[in-house]
Amino acid sequence: MRLLVVEDDRDINRQLADALVQAGYAVDRAYNGEEGLFLGETEPYDAIILDMGLPKLDGQSVLTKWRRAGRDMPVLILTARDRWSDKVQGFDAGADDYVTKPFHMEEVLARVRALLRRAAGHSSSEIVCGPVCLDTRASRVTVDGEFVKLTSHEYRLLAYLMHHTGRVVSRSELVEHLYDQDFDRDSNTIEVFIGRLRRKLGVDVIQTVRGLGYRLEPPAE
């Protein structure tokens, strides 16, 4: 899953990005409203964390422009403790949730997980496909209750497919959502990771749809 953090405070921006990367996400960063607006309009983010008090273009204006342009990715806004009006304006502009500064990082991570689950139509923190279970809280994968050790790239790939169970996902979509903008992207690596995942999971849940991509489905009885 690929996220964007738009926050002008460089320390907060770095802390958020580091925590999100550790949690298994690919993360891009912007430090002002104009840069954030451009990235949000041109890149396919799964969710965005957006500060309301940005230089060059404020967060509310950025969010309003995104929504008017038809960009419907989940947006979590960051607001100052004494600016309750930011919350109201943010929701009116199209925000999905908010966190008040100063915040606990665990709360931000939990709210991001919830936004991603709801956007994909899942209500539980555990996403299940046959014997495969993805615990989004712990970034942990099990098969029939047994822990499966995955690399960060393998986990990102499986997590994206698990969030979109039953839907055909193309290689280009996977590349766009698994790597940040600075990563040297190569769609051929997706096939390598798919092969590794199949071997590690040991169950037939990842189907190849010829000419289209991959689909995650429970194994046939």
Task: Briefly summarize what is shown.
The chain has 221 residues and is of the alpha/beta class.
How would you describe this structure to a colleague?
This protein has 221 residues and is α/β, with parallel strands linked by helices. Helices cover 42% and strands 21% of the residues. It is built from eight helices and eleven strands. It has helices at 10-22, 33-42, 59-68, 84-93, 105-119, 152-163, 171-178, 188-201; strands at 2-6, 26-30, 47-51, 75-79, 97-100, 126-129, 132-135, 140-143, 146-148, 206-209, 213-216. The strands form three sheets. A five-stranded parallel sheet has the order 2-1-3-4-5, with helices on both faces. Strand 10 (206-209) and strand 11 (213-216) form a beta hairpin. Helix 2 (33-42) packs parallel to helix 3 (59-68). The chain starts with a strand and ends in a 5-residue tail after the last strand.
What's the helix-strand series? EHEHEHEHEHEEEEHHHEE
* Rg calc: 18 Å
The rounded distance between the terminal residues' Cα atoms is 30 Å
Kindly state the percentage of residues in helix: 40-55%
Q: Order of strands across the widest beta sheet?
A: 2-1-3-4-5
Protein name: DNA-binding response regulator, OmpR family, contains REC and winged-helix (WHTH) domain
Organism: Chelatococcus sambhunathii
Domain OmpR/PhoB-type: 124-218
InterPro entries: CheY-like_superfamily, OmpR/PhoB-type_DNA-bd, Sig_transdc_resp-reg_C-effctor, Sig_transdc_resp-reg_receiver, WalR-like, WH-like_DNA-bd_sf
